[in-house]
Write a structure and sequence with these properties.
Elements (H helix, E strand, L loop, with lengths): L5 H46 L1
Family: Belongs to the CcmD/CycX/HelD family.
Main location: membrane
Function: Required for the export of heme to the periplasm for the biogenesis of c-type cytochromes.
Length: about 50
């Protein structure tokens, strides 16, 4: 491999790593949001069951 290709290779790996990290962050944030929403719904559902 010649030296002229190293820049392209590093750029490709960098873009791939950045994409994977962004997707991982989005998944973790979505999981946190959905967990909080589920906890809120379970709390309100529990209150509703007591009144029935």
């Amino acid at each position: 491999m010649t030296d002229e290709h190293w820049g392209y290779i590093l750029l490709a790996y960098g873009v791939t790593a950045a994409t994977v990290l962004v997707l991982l962050a989005r998944i973790l944030l979505e999981n946190r949001r959905l967990s909080a929403e589920l906890a809120r719904l379970e709390k309100t559902a529990g209150a509703r069951e007591e009144t029935l």
